[in-house]
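Please, structure for the following, as tokens.
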Amino acid sequence: MKNFFKLDKPTFSFEIFPPKGKGDLTQIFNTVDALASLDPDLISVTYGAGGSSRENTAEIASRIQRDYAIPALAHLTCIGSTRGEMRAILDTLRDKGIQNILAMRGDIVNEGTKDFAHASDLIKFIKENYGFRIFAACYPEKHIEAYSMEEDLKYLKAKCECGVDALISQLFFDNEHFYEFRDKARAMGITQRIEAGIMPITSPSQINKMVTMCGASVPAGVQKIIRAYGHNAMAMREAGTAYATAQIIDLLASGVDGIHLYTMNQPEIAKRICENIRGVLYSLRVKRG
């Protein structure tokens, strides 16, 4: 199995999400089958809020590593959990052979923070008690709750100093936001690998949902695409795939550490993008290797 942290840059990884509750996992492994054929460097598995898919995250991540020999990244949120509950979850992940965790706070819920108020609290806890590699989230246009980018970067640096091994960015549609963020992060002494998070646009409703959730801005070029093709599902998917491909090619040409593709469990789109960039990615890996 690949060691993600020893791979030549740039890396290429995917994100998938489990079915809600304890639903049948057949479809998600059909998705994994398709994505695995694209030879990703890592596949991350999200962690459902409020227990909606938590039971499946460890199982799916474990099987990705065991059956496909692809490094898996298990998402883990801490808000609302006690130290005892978190230890039980981490024990399960460790026992299933998971080596990488994306440590996040999660959405604030009415039940209160209990023992973990911030992602940094979870990162410290993991570092003190376990041997996982820790990924953390970063926000090219700042966290939606942050007062300013400067404040957000200050908290990001503190989080990284707690023991973060790599960063994955929230989605963005304007590469200039990512470059500005990366430059400021490096200037502050943040040295961890920063994977650029890219989500292909597939529908106007998807854009509206994601912008509301994470605060990403929608540049004029994306608004033009939505106006021109938003009424036609097939045209929208093709235009969105082309836009994501252009983003990725520009990022790779600008020396990005890696690309993390938010697949939304649509492997056919991931396949199209991989076909579009295969030569570019191979050329850069050979050059940098």
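Residues 9-198+258-264 form a domain with the TIM Barrel fold (CATH 3.20.20.220). The mean pLDDT is 92.
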